[in-house]
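Title: Prediction job returns without error message
Component: structure pipeline
Severity: low
Priority: P3
Assignee: unassigned

Description:
Job completed but the reporter wants confirmation the result is attached to the right record. Sequence as submitted:
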Amino acid sequence: MSIELKFKELEAYLFVEASGPFTNSSVKQAIKAVRDEADALECTRILIDARKVSEPDVQLTRYYTGEYFAEFLPQPFKVALIKRLDDTDRFTETVAVNRGAQYWVFSDEETATHWLLKKVSYL
């Protein structure tokens, strides 16, 4: 079973709604698919709503997810990810950022969009 993705091209960024199981293989496939869609649309700003994605199968999956974001969506890509407030943790974000990605986790869409559209990469 994999993560289901719904894409919507907006004027300033690609919006992705994700749902399904958070496993190492499903998240890797999903991030590759997001990159493919972003490349097809020539878009470097991406907002991913992952509030319908389950908790990870194992905690190590969070680490690999950070690596995948850095590998498949390196700069100049800028990725804002929305998670449920009770599931927002900075581990995946830290792994991705430490490897050069512009990736930040948020619990609400308004703040995520604001950061995504700012010209600087930090909050």
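Comment from assignee: result matches the submitted record. The beta strands are 4-9, 14-22, 45-56, 78-82, 102-106.
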